[in-house]
């Protein structure tokens, strides 16, 4: 009877040790994945900031005016070219 109890305790101890090793290994893998995702998040935040700055630059009225003049030849009408229509 004592031998059986001792054998069960040894088996339970070995199983417990294996489960601890498995849990630590899984924890390490998840920690590495967390660090990778945090780096990815930081890179995406930097890229988002760059894109916001670029969008603000392209949306400036001076930039729009410059593109309209250079690419499609737009210009402000002269006083004689302006027609006012009243109801």
Automatic annotation (TrEMBL):
It is found in: Cell inner membrane; Cell membrane. Residues 27-54 form a coiled coil. GO terms for cellular component: cell division site; plasma membrane. It is a single-pass type II membrane protein. One of its GO terms (biological process) is FtsZ-dependent cytokinesis. It comes from the Bacteria. Keywords: Cell cycle, Cell division, Cell inner membrane, Cell membrane, Coiled coil, Membrane, Transmembrane, Transmembrane helix. Its main location: membrane. The keyword Cell membrane applies. The keyword Transmembrane applies. Essential cell division protein. May link together the upstream cell division proteins, which are predominantly cytoplasmic, with the downstream cell division proteins, which are predominantly periplasmic. Part of a complex composed of FtsB, FtsL and FtsQ. Belongs to the FtsL family. This is Cell division protein FtsL. It comes from Lysobacter capsici AZ78.
């Amino acid at each position: 009877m004592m031998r059986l109890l001792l054998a069960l305790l040894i088996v339970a101890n070995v199983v417990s040790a294996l489960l601890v090793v498995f849990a630590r290994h899984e924890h390490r893998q998840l920690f590495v994945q967390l660090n990778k995702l945090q780096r990815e998040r930081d890179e995406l935040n930097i890229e988002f900031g760059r894109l916001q700055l670029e969008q603000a630059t392209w949306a400036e009225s001076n930039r729009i005016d410059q593109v309209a003049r250079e690419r499609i030849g737009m210009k402000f009408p002269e006083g004689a070219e302006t027609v006012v229509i009243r109801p």
